[in-house]
């Protein structure tokens, strides 16, 4: 498992883009569109990162939390699982899985401090109850592989360690999309290296050729990342609230 | 769903008949249950319950780590997690495993106290080989177990997996490929008797070699029926240094030297040397005399390689599996509990004692423990073994010899009494023949342990005994 991505549960649970881009029936009933879903997931990814900054956890914990968050909504509706609660709870669960446990008390404290809106405020009990529901929703599969691990050895192999900084920030940004649910993590690392090398005008063609990876997949991932930068960057508060208000409607 | 009177009971509970409690640890309790599902009817399941915490910090990180690892791994010699259940009302978590009737702790104890004979070489070798086989799988997947001890090494009872070893209790196991923190950060690990010297001396970055040290200690214990290094633990100190344990080791293996173990000088507790361990002198009776093995035997050679001071020189699980010890007669087999010679009697290991008075909530149907009247066919106190968990100390659990309520909720009365009679409601815990299953059992045991099995990777079986 830990040695081999291909035998891991993560590998077996990779999904197609269409499977990820599915609005759950309960959410559809409330008028949630695919675009709303993307906006809420992006907003909550930023929410998780902001919270993580306060409680001081490593980037990998954030990445695992976001992967849990995105995976949950391929199976559960936002109507049933309030994203405002699922987001901090994913961070809570990821902190345990990645052995950097953050007390629930601390998360609750920061939620209250950071947000004026009551929607984001919860009690310890809420987080602990949601933790159990998340474990069920994730079917107890908690190991997530990340593109970070392969990045450094790949850059070293390519002799392009000077691309480390841009490639790393590209990898961080991939969590604003669902790529981690769809592609093997090392493919995502390669796409980030590819984009970074193009941005810095480095010729990497021969190195990529030697890797014997499917360049079409790498280019598809790269296109998605670039497309994301063009279209989504930061949704406005109004756009987020519009989507969140649809969810808040009682049926 | 639960009916009105038991509305707290989760629906999943319906798929089990609870037999009773079989173990207890700091995390919670272990139960024996039988599956009621049509696909699995009557199959024994061990259910490990993690206590919930409502205002504390949710599911214990130990449980999270154990589930996370068990969900990824699958190997014949590693315990199989068959299900995870949640009781939302009290926030408790249940892990359901295939039940194993025996463990190496109980097997050794049985030989020491009841059989008064060493364990047969075939059995020792088969248990060791399978233990190494499971460990090799874990290590090649970057998992260190960190808490190997005889009670965590289970052995399957009657059935198609009879005599197969299952490594259990992954509460302390770690993936060590890319830890976010030094491995030493989350507390000192491994029961002190099986703890490797580098841990006792405060190593920050340790490796899978700590598990191999524990295997060496277990191997010696299988041979002599006595723990090899029985140090007295100094509790309540954050310092990993355990003087008594180290002295026990040095007395058998001699003083470690920088020559034998070059990185020794870098270990924090050796460097500080607050208790002047560096300058102590030990008589060195030699490992061979403690385990009663001639120094030239393959068994001794393998053991001494497992108990190598320098973790970098210590034999790995993969290397150990290739050792000559496993190639000479008798070769190891899949069923470690079959008789090793024609005409030899199989040892009848006792079934695990079950406390049938405790339900899933952990409440006992009888208020307080009380002395047992001799009129009851109950041994004064029964050992409380654990299936998948650390053995509690002390191991004795008061067993209450009160008549049980027939048809207690969720308990099949019939199973209850039959289990109880086998499980230890039996004076002095003498293993009793299981009348009904005896013939069947004999047949099973006559089978060649290696034959008829798909390629399991066992060393080639030459002339097999029948």
From TrEMBL, chain A:
Organism: Amborella trichopoda
One MF annotation (Gene Ontology) recorded for this entry: cyclin-dependent protein serine/threonine kinase regulator activity
Keyword Transcription: yes
Cellular component per GO, a single term: mediator complex
Subcellular location: Nucleus
Ranges of residues in domain Cyclin-like: 46-136, 149-227
Domain of life of the source: Eukaryota
Listed GO biological process terms: positive regulation of transcription by RNA polymerase II
Alphabetic keyword roster: Activator, Cyclin, Nucleus, Repressor, Transcription, Transcription regulation
Gene3D superfamilies: Cyclin-like
SUPFAM superfamilies in UniProt: Cyclin-like
Family recorded in the similarity comment: Belongs to the cyclin family. Cyclin C subfamily.
InterPro entries: Cyclin-like_dom (IPR013763), Cyclin-like_sf (IPR036915), Cyclin/Ssn8 (IPR043198), Cyclin_N (IPR006671)
This protein's name: Cyclin-like domain-containing protein
Automatic annotation (TrEMBL), chain B:
Single GO cellular component term: nucleus
Catalytic activity line of the entry: L-threonyl-[protein] + ATP = O-phospho-L-threonyl-[protein] + ADP + H(+); L-seryl-[protein] + ATP = O-phospho-L-seryl-[protein] + ADP + H(+); [DNA-directed RNA polymerase] + ATP = phospho-[DNA-directed RNA polymerase] + ADP + H(+)
Signal peptide residue numbers: none
Region (Disordered) location: 359-380, 432-466
The UniProt record lists the keyword Repressor: no
Ranges of compositional bias, category Polar residues: 359-379, 457-466
Gene Ontology molecular-function annotations: ATP binding; cyclin-dependent protein serine/threonine kinase activity; protein serine/threonine kinase activity; RNA polymerase II CTD heptapeptide repeat kinase activity
Family assignment from sequence similarity: Belongs to the protein kinase superfamily. CMGC Ser/Thr protein kinase family. CDC2/CDKX subfamily.
Name used for this protein in its record: Cyclin-dependent kinase E-1
Source organism of this protein record: Amborella trichopoda
């Amino acid at each position: 498992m830990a040695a081999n991505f291909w035998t891991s549960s993560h590998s077996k649970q990779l999904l197609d883009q269409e499977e990820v881009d599915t609005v759950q029936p309960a959410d559809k009933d409330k008028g949630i569109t695919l675009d709303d879903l993307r906006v809420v997931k992006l907003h909550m990814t930023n929410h998780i990162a902001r919270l993580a900054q306060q409680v001081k956890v490593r980037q990998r914990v954030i990445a695992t939390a976001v992967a849990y968050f995105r995976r949950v909504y391929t199976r559960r509706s936002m109507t049933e699982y309030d994203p405002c609660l699922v987001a901090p709870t994913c961070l809570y669960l990821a902190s345990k899985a990645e052995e950097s446990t953050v007390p629930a008390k601390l998360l609750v404290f920061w939620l209250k401090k950071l947000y004026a809106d009551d929607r984001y405020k919860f009690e310890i009990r809420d987080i602990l109850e949601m933790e159990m529901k998340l474990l069920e929703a994730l079917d107890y599969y908690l190991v997530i592989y990340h593109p970070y691990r392969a990045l450094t050895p790949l850059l070293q192999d390519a002799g392009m360690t000077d691309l480390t900084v841009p490639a790393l920030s590209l990898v961080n940004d991939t969590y604003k999309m669902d790529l981690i649910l769809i592609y093997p993590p090392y493919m995502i690392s390669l796409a980030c290296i590819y984009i970074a090398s193009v941005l810095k005008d480095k010729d990497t063609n021969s190195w990529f050729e030697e890797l014997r990876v499917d360049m079409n997949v790498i280019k598809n991932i790269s296109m998605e990342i670039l497309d994301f930068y063009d279209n989504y960057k930061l949704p406005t508060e109004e756009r987020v609230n519009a989507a969140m208000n649809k969810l808040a409607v009682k049926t | 769903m639960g009916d009105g009177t038991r509305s707290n009971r989760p629906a999943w509970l319906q798929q089990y008949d609870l037999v009773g409690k079989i173990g207890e640890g700091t995390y919670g309790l272990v139960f024996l249950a039988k599956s009621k599902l049509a696909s699995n009817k009557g199959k024994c399941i061990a259910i490990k319950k993690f206590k919930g915490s409502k205002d504390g910090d949710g599911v214990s990180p130990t449980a999270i780590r154990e589930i996370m690892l068990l969900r990824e791994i699958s190997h014949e010699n590693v315990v199989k997690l068959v299900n995870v259940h949640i009781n939302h009302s009290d926030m408790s978590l249940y892990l359901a495993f295939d039940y194993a009737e025996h463990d190496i702790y109980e097997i050794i104890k049985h030989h020491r106290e009841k059989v008064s004979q060493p364990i047969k070489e075939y059995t020792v070798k088969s248990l060791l080989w399978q233990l190494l086989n499971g460990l090799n799988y874990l290590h090649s997947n970057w998992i260190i177990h960190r808490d190997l001890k005889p009670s965590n090494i289970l052995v399957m009872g009657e059935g198609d997996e009879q005599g197969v070893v299952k490594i259990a209790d992954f509460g302390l196991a770690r993936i060590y490929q890319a830890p976010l923190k030094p491995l030493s950060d989350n507390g000192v690990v491994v029961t002190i008797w099986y703890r490797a010297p580098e841990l006792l001396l405060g190593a920050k970055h340790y490796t899978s070699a700590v598990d191999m040290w524990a295997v060496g200690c277990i191997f010696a214990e299988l041979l002599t029926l006595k723990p090899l290094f029985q140090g007295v633990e100094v509790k309540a100190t954050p310092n990993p240094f355990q003087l008594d344990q180290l002295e026990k080791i040095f007395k058998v293996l001699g003083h470690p030297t920088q020559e034998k173990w070059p990185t020794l000088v870098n270990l924090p507790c050796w460097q500080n040397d607050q208790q002047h361990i560096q300058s102590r002198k030990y008589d060195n009776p030699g490992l061979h005399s403690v385990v009663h093995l001639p120094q030239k035997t393959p068994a001794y050679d393998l053991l001494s390689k497992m108990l190598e001071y320098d973790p970098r020189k210590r034999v790995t699980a993969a290397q150990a599996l290739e050792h000559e010890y496993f190639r000479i007669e008798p070769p190891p087999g899949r069923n470690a509990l079959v008789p090793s010679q024609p005409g030899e009697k199989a040892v009848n290991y006792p079934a695990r004692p079950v406390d049938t008075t405790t339900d899933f909530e952990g409440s006992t149907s009888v208020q307080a423990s009380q002395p047992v009247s001799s009129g009851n066919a109950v041994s004064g106190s029964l050992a409380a073994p654990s299936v998948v968990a650390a053995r509690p100390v002390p191991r004795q659990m008061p067993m209450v010899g009160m008549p049980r309520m027939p048809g207690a909720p969720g308990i099949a009365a019939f199973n209850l009494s039959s289990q109880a009679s086998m499980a230890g409601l039996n004076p002095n815990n003498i293993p009793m023949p299981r009348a009904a299953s005896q013939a069947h059992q004999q047949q099973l045991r006559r089978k060649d342990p290696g034959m008829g099995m798909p390629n399991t990777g066992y060393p080639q079986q030459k002339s097999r005994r029948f």
